[in-house]
Amino acid sequence: MLRQIEGSRAVAEAVALCRPRVVSAYPISPQTHIIEGVGSLVKSGRLKPCEFINVESEFAAMSVSIGAAATGARAYTATSGPGLLDMAEAVFNASGLGLPIVMTVANRAVGAPINIGNDHSDAMALRDSGWIQLFAETNQHAVDLHIQAFRLAERLSVPVMVCMDGFILTHSVERVEIPTQEQVDRYLRPFAPQQVLDPAAPVSIGAMVGPEAFTEVRYLAHARLLEALVCIPELAAEFERVVGRPSGGLVSAYRSEDAETIVVALGSVVGTVKDVVDQMREEGLKIGVVAVTTFRPFPEQALGQALEGAHRVVVIEKAFAVGGRGVLGAQVDALVSDRGTKTYTVVAGLGGRSIPEASLRRVLGEAIRGELGAMSFLDLDRVVVDRELARMAEDPRRAPSTARVPRDVRENAARIV
Amino acid sequence: MSEHPFAITLDAGSSRDNRTGSWRVERPIYVDRMPPCNDACPAGENIQRWLYHAEAGAYEAAWRGLVEDNPLPAICGRVCFHPCEAACNRGKVDEAVGIRAVERFLGDAAIAHGWRLPERAPATGRRVLVVGSGPSGLSAAYHLARAGHEVVVREAAPRPGGMLRYGIPKYRLPREVIDAEISAIEDLGVEIRCDAGVADIASAMAEGAFDAAYLVLGAQLSHRVQVPAADSARLLDALAFLAGTEAAEPVAIGRRVVVYGGGDTAMDAARSAKRLGATDAVIVYRRNRRKMPAHADLVEEALAEGVTVRWMSTISRVEKDKVLVEKMELDSAGFPQPTGEFTNLDADCVILALGQDADLAPLAALEGVEVRDGLVVVDAQMMTGHSGVFAGGDMVPAERTVTVAVGHGKRAARNIDRWLRGETGGPPPRHELASIETLNTWYYADAGRTVQPELEAQRRQTGFEEVVGGLDEPNALFEARRCLSCGNCFECDNCYGVCPDNAVSKLGPGERYVFDYDYCKGCGICVAECPCGAIVMVPELI
Hints:
Chain A is of the alpha/beta class.
């Protein structure tokens, strides 16, 4: 049914259609409306049978999800930013134990300073936790990805994180087509766990394993995650057959077939980039965009193909490796630099900062003209930064190190715009 | 090959393969310590045990626990000076448990529900004479009857109860309470003969063919001091005055009453005088409040009722309508000394409450009985120098309270029983005291003491209605639950929960726990975390 609905509520409805048996969560902005939505569906009896467990922290939320999944219950949770980091150890446990938990991450910046706005620092901090990470472009996409996520998780016995931009998606009201229960039931059958904790047949799970086996355990997890690269397109195709709408997959290209310049991005910013691409296409520029829907496992082959023929790739990222490079940018660069494709990383939208079309047009124009640095920060307030760097350089308490570091920064400043 | 995911899921192993008990050099053991309340109870009640039942709402079981030691809980629940509460460890945490109030609740519940005292043991054919039907005589008669002996109580007064009836005013102890608890003892088959004083113990024993006797004649002779008095002066004896309030026509006392003395009897006399219409009831006492022998509760209640006290004063002379009072001062040894300063005090009558002596004349013909300072000497078994004749209560050297008397009765009865059976030995040795240092008070929730209702002051000056009210059921339950269970396991599961070796097993409700020494490595965490100090570490003997 087509509805005008808030993104969080739409996700809650989609999750309920997937019939989770246990939902355990701790509220945190901007995830709160999602679990409130699921909670009210449980309370009203629309989602039944389902145990909604209020817990005292995100660590507990994930731990309860682990316990639930281990006993064969379909388990769902959701979190944001610092919440994801609070549960970090358990996040690794969930994937290490191969438990098919689905978690929404309403992406939020990570402090300090405290900031509840959207960026991708949270998901990127746990990108190597062994979970599948899917990024939603729109609320419709978020709904579809959640339904596919349960199927995918249970198919591979791997947990799946569905990332959706906090506030930008979670709090915006848009038209969303919610599948029917009948459609979802056809697509997602009851959970048939690969193994179940059962007092009648006791086992130990997650017990101590030493160096003699740990490498093999990790290799097997890696192999299983890579298997998702095959499964995800299959499950997306099946979803289209059942629901009648293409959604999901590894990457999604827009007007990139003949493009000389291709923008690569994660999440909701792709929508803005599409508008900019349309404008620049009208001006005769050969430009397109490729959205990375599946970020973990990293779809090297699919993305490599999508970027074939491009002269330059501009990666727009809502997070970066402080002291290093862009996270996605570095991976894209490794993928295409051999072909002579030039890559640029543009860090944008940190802590909820808007990414205006005009800024994107400006930075893409600079890339096309060869004026853009390899790594840049969109709409960086240069006056503030320079003043602060200068003050730091003059601070005698910081002199020994800043004498060198700020100079490096300054030398790079020509490239960092 | 296992069917489980490689190295993530393993066959069920068990830490029980590792018998960590072999590491141990010390072992924890469960102990029972003596709770301070039980230790302090003159009647030897197992207070903590009956509170434990009351905590669960099992009031009849609690009352049955109580009457194992004391058949007069409704009485003691009103008039006991509760040394248990003074000793209560909870008093060092917030406020002592209101033990007496719960005891009264249980005693009243027994009367209301008609719970019957436990059945007697099969008859032994032995006969015991109890002389005196005060609390000690009643207690002894009850315990002797339970042991299967035939008991006859002889009482000089027209009604049974001794000082309970003739010494303690109704507003502290309603008469229907006395009657109810005495009749419960009579229902056991104890014969109480009133108006049947014994003039000569030896012949009374011989006539009745008694095998043993318990003498509790009390102390009913008021101390007479030489107070110069005019012929027209009106002097009353406190005990006679109090006994007179039981009569249909109370003694005439006038409007201005002076009571001379500082004990509980003086308080009772002054308060009774107020109730009989005295506008002024003034106590004259020769020392200060700190040195006053009366119990603090009674002093407080007397003052609240408008009784006044002339501290540090003696009466030098009594005249028709006034007394001459001399001011005293304490010397360096704390004794009051005269100052030569005098004042007059209006008084229509003077009640003397200066202590009581025992009338030992009925013992005169008994050989071997030793009397010292006007009191009968008894050994640790409460036996006088005359074999088979035991004594207790106010006529032996001890504190003179109802509960001490009840305790004497129990102790004497048990020793008489042993003596009749030709057994020797005494009660088992006492456990080590559960002092506050042995407790982990951190574990107990804050809970203030429940306050008993009190009659408003106006009504306390006009009649003999009971002053202190009882607790209702929810409040009695709350008060019982304030017990810390000092030194005795109350199955809180702390040891069970904290043991890192899962070496504590539960044996089921009321059965406590057992250590599995195959796995207990002697870390002592259970000892450290036991709230009530019921676990101790002892060295392993190799």
